[in-house]
TrEMBL record:
UniProt KW keywords: Lyase, Magnesium, Metal-binding
Substrates-to-products reaction catalysed: (2S,3R)-3-hydroxybutane-1,2,3-tricarboxylate = pyruvate + succinate
Source domain of life: Bacteria
Keyword Lyase: yes
Lineage: Bacteria, Bacillati, Actinomycetota, Actinomycetes, Catenulisporales
Protein name per UniProt: Methylisocitrate lyase
Length: 301
């Protein structure tokens, strides 16, 4: 049946081990629980819950309109069916340091492996847009400290994201990252770096695992997994890739359906019924229903 074979604690340990290994973790953003399952089947090491994707899925821009409980519920739905460590975009922590602390506990309870908190002010912006503002460094330090102190499982990863590069420049962003690490951040997400030189400078200056955001149509070039490995980065993030792919296919398909009055021409581009059922482990539910009350049955059993 469609459920995980691993516990949240195991997935947190696995994420810690991945980060410590020095190998690049490739992390696509799930659109929903089912696509997280596909990320797992395709052989990726970890999955991401993007604020941009989650907001867009609700028909909202990514400007801090969603709530921590809404996000935690989506995270829980994904963590229930995906054995990969899940990293969650917790934006600014949803308020004051106390709110960031509560967000950590909500996401721990949801079964995820870690979150990132950023130093933007609310209303936040996409990291690759202009017009961002950041809170004073001391305020973000308090946010990180609160998050770290709230965590109950020491393996839960707290990553600090800094948006300061676009606002205060590279050196200030590096200084902030160092302060966040001192405050207890396990890893850093330097947002919207301009080029490989900046990625390298960040790597040389900051001694914890680093995430590289490979979002499309943003400020930076799309670097390959090999290039990011060579730069010494630990996570290659593809936050909105699946949503963009899916929405592109949906738009094209709707146009064809409207124009042709039938979806027949679209069939070769669709996931088939049998492939969908395979993903959902449909068979195991049928066996269960016919009296084989075995919850451990699942894909590959
Ligand atoms: C990483 C990010 O915060 C996200 O919500 O996925 C976004 C991605 C995007 O809007 O392209 C970001 O601010 O980079």
């Amino acid at each position: 049946m469609l459920h995980t074979r691993t516990t949240p604690a195991e997935r947190r340990r696995a994420f810690r081990a991945q980060l410590a290994s020095g190998r690049l973790i490739r992390m696509p953003g799930a659109v929903n629980p089912l696509s997280a399952r596909l990320i797992q089947e395709t052989g990726f090491e970890a999955a991401y819950l993007s604020g941009a994707v989650f907001s867009a899925d609700l028909g909202l821009p990514d400007i801090g309109l969603t709530t921590s409980t809404e996000l935690a519920e989506r995270a829980r739905q994904i963590a229930r069916v995906c054995d990969l460590p899940l990293l969650v975009d917790a934006d600014t922590g949803f308020g004051e340091p106390m709110n960031a602390a509560r967000t950590v506990q909500l996401l721990e309870d949801a079964g995820v492996a870690g979150l990132h908190l950023e130093d933007q002010v609310n209303p936040k912006r996409c990291g690759h847009l202009d017009g961002k503002s950041v809170v004073p460094r001391a305020e973000m330090v308090r946010r990180v400290r609160a998050a770290v102190s709230a965590r109950r499982d020491a393996d839960f990863v707290i990553m600090a994201r800094t948006d300061a590069r676009a606002v205060e420049g590279l050196d200030a962003a590096i200084d902030r990252a160092k302060a966040y690490v001192e405050a207890g951040a396990d890893a850093v997400f330097p947002e919207a770096l301009a080029d490989e030189g900046e990625f390298a400078a960040f790597r040389a200056a900051v001694g914890v695992p680093l995430l590289a955001n490979m979002t499309e149509f943003g400020k930076g070039r799309l670097l390959t997994a090999q290039a990011l490995t060579d730069l010494g980065y630990n996570i290659a993030l593809y936050p909105v890739t699946l949503l963009r792919l899916a929405m592109g296919a949906v738009e094209d398909g709707l146009r064809t359906l409207a124009a042709e009055g039938t979806q027949a021409a679209l069939l070769p581009r669709m996931q088939t019924r049998s492939r969908l059922y395979e993903l959902l482990d449909y068979e195991a539910y049928s066996s269960f229903d016919s009296g084989v009350f075995d919850f451990t049955l699942g894909p590959g059993d």
